[in-house]
From TrEMBL:
The keyword Repeat does not apply. InterPro entries: Beta-barrel_TonB, Beta-barrel_TonB_sf, Plug_dom, Plug_dom_sf, TonB-dep_rcpt-like. It comes from Rufibacter glacialis. It comes from the Bacteria. Belongs to the TonB-dependent receptor family. This is TonB-dependent receptor.
Length: 649
């Protein structure tokens, strides 16, 4: 299947690069960046009162092949936990765990059914991907796992005539290298896009070993990786009322598993292979818009250690096939009333060495989303989902949200937002079937989230900006956590009684253009997070303890100055202290990170060349996101890209 997929994709790429018989006007002096289709995703329309933030797509266009882990580290207040550069990387919203974050790719949840989470180091989105972050529970919209929040990956369709090609080469410290190529074609009826990236690194940097006497500097061993990613989209407009789309995304990664400080190097290695295929038909039917989707995912993970020796101490493999289907119908009932009804089904087929055999599971859910605007200044959304899972009985998950415009004039608007939502998470396959330790009797998690906030938007001449302040409270019942078993030397999952959290989130983004040559833009995002469970102290008294690896303070800020064809960009993050145990007796210190880049664009006819020099961790901070996992010191990257766009008639 993979071979056939690549053959079809290569044929599509060739078709894109072939000249098309059109006459064009005289070529312009400059080449513009690919247009970004700005449209409200289907979720946003029904998410009144919720905090939804779009991530700057310019970052993906300038650095094709960059992973979601790097994107979210630079542009969000989410805490990124990483086992090392290029190693396992996870994110979490509002003090929840990584398995409480749903990741959706064009409507389908792509989290691993075995782990219930996504490795963001294995997700290099294509350059035309729109990345959005929905904070807070959203079970009615996204189903199981959307307890803390959701990361939404959308690839919008545009049939506007175009032909574009871009290639890029990047080199950096510690053997960092990336090659990327993208192409797109559209003629009003057919739209094609392709992207390929290969990223590799030796990761042989010097680090300070804090577990050894005197904290000597050592060279990191067994941390190299390489990753290939290929994405292909084919869209065909059957008629003005019908569209057919096919998408594919294939990622293959080989990683040496970076050992923790003070532990023996077992030469562990891991191979990941992720194939995602989906098709979509959309058309006008029964007075509304009907969408039918089908998808097949194949996720393979092979792990081994002592691979360089004659004998293999440990070998673990996992292959999961996921079959998914969705049908939705959206209809405008009144000029101010919109309804969407849908149903989806999932089938998991897992062959995992840790299970001792094959496991299958079926899931099904139906949902209804309602959007009602009774007044020009008032928006309401009411959503509900009911799921049926083999062996479980998930709760009904409603969501009610509202946006109320408090004040609006020519340059300012102030909106009050409020939302209450229920969520759930079904135990993963590992939670139930891993041997030893799996517990088929686990209960599904259930949670409630409450939030309210104010959003201010400003526009005056060349200055535009948006600021949003949100306060929230969150509680999760029957939280699933793995802990050491009392019956043997292994871990097992248990249902905690209840975890509570609350916090504040602040996000502000501004853009200012001076005359035609200077452009200033920037933003900042801050999260104050309290996430606690009650644990007994030495006197057997229950006391609130911050969950481990949940920083109370996290901040990200970024700024860019553009002058003609030059630009200077910088971003900085601050991560507060994080406890590394449930008793809050040990912690990792707070740390800042600063990155900077300088770029220059050269144009000639239909070609554009871009040079970009970057310094990462400019402050040379010694830090860890997970205990005893070394992270890179100051390092440098240099890239050059060439773009070509056919002039439009």
């Amino acid at each position: 299947m993979v071979r056939q997929f690549f053959l079809c994709a290569l044929a599509a790429v060739a078709a894109e690069l072939l000249p098309v018989g059109h006459s064009y006007a005289q070529a312009p002096d400059t080449v513009q960046l690919a247009p970004v289709t700005v449209s409200a995703p289907r979720y946003t329309r029904y998410a009144a009162g919720a905090r939804v933030q779009a991530v700057d797509t310019l970052l993906l266009q300038r650095q094709p092949g960059i992973t979601l882990a790097d994107v979210l580290q630079q542009r969000s207040p989410l805490y990124l936990k990483s086992n090392g550069n290029g190693m396992l990387a996870t994110v979490a919203f509002r003090g929840t765990s990584s398995s409480h974050t749903a990741v959706l790719w064009n409507g389908f949840n792509i989290a691993l059914p075995t782990l219930g989470m996504s490795d963001f180091a294995l997700l290099p989105p294509s350059a035309n991907t729109q990345v959005s972050l929905q904070h807070g529970p959203s079970g009615a919209l996204h189903g199981s796992g959307a307890v803390g929040g959701a990361v939404l990956l959308e690839n919008p369709v545009s049939f506007a005539p175009q032909q574009r090609v871009q290639v890029q080469q990047e080199l950096g410290s510690f053997g960092q290298r990336r090659t990327a190529a993208t192409g797109s074609f559209a003629n009003g009826r057919l739209a094609l896009s392709s992207s390929f990236t290969r990223t590799a690194s030796d990761n042989d940097f010097r680090y300070r070993n804090t577990t050894a006497f005197g904290s000597p500097r050592e060279t990191l061993q067994n941390a190299a990786f390489h990753q290939n990613s290929f994405a292909q989209e084919i869209h065909y407009k059957i008629s003005q009322a019908q569209r057919l789309s096919v998408r594919g995304w294939y990622v293959k990664t080989h990683r040496q598993i970076q050992p923790s400080m003070g532990s023996a190097n077992t030469h562990a290695q891991q191979d990941d292979e992720n194939l995602r295929l989906m098709s979509e038909w959309q058309g006008r039917l029964a007075g509304g818009t009907t969408t039918v989707r089908a998808a097949y995912f194949k996720d393979r993970l092979d792990y081994r250690n002592n691979a360089s020796l004659a004998t293999v101490d440990s070998l673990s493999f996992s292959t999961v096939g996921t079959y998914q289907s969705q049908v939705e119908h959206e209809r405008t009932l009144l000029p101010n009333l919109m309804l969407q009804l849908g149903a989806e089904g999932q089938l998991f087929k897992a062959h995992v060495s840790g299970y001792g055999g094959k496991v299958e599971e079926q899931r099904f859910s139906t949902y209804a989303w309602l959007r009602y605007d009774p007044l020009p200044t008032l928006q309401l959304s009411l959503n509900v989902r009911q799921a049926w899972v083999q062996g479980f009985n998930p709760p009904l998950t409603p969501t009610l949200g509202t946006n109320l415009s408090l004040w609006q004039d020519q340059g300012n608007s102030l909106t009050l937002k409020a939302n209450v939502s229920r969520s759930y998470r079904v135990p993963t396959l590992n939670d139930r079937f891993w041997r030893p330790g799996g517990n088929p009797a686990l209960k599904p998690e259930g949670g409630w989230g409450y939030e309210g906030g104010l959003q201010h938007q400003y526009r005056s001449g060349s200055l535009t900006g948006s600021t949003e302040l949100t306060g929230y409270a969150l509680q999760v019942k029957d939280w699933i956590q793995w802990q050491r078993s009392t019956e043997g030397n292994y871990s097992e999952p248990v249902n905690l009684q209840k975890v509570r959290g609350h916090g504040l989130e602040l996000d502000s983004r501004w853009h200012y253009q001076m005359e035609e040559t200077w452009i200033l833009s920037g933003g900042a995002a801050y999260a104050y997070t309290i996430s606690q469970q009650k644990l007994p102290n030495a006197q057997a008294q229950l006391q609130a303890r911050q969950l481990f690896y949940v920083p109370k303070h996290k901040m990200a800020a970024w700024a860019e100055v553009r002058y003609k064809s030059w630009w200077l960009t910088t971003d900085a993050t601050f991560t507060g202290r994080r406890f590394t145990d449930n008793d809050n007796n040990h912690w990792l210190p707070a740390y800042p990170l600063v990155n900077a880049g300088l770029g220059k664009t050269f144009t000639w006819r239909s070609f554009e060349t871009q040079l970009l020099a970057q310094v990462l961790n400019a402050s040379n901070t010694i830090y860890q996101t997970l205990a005893y996992r070394a992270m890179p010191p100051r390092n440098f990257r240099l890239s050059v890209s060439l773009r070509w766009a056919a002039p439009q008639p």
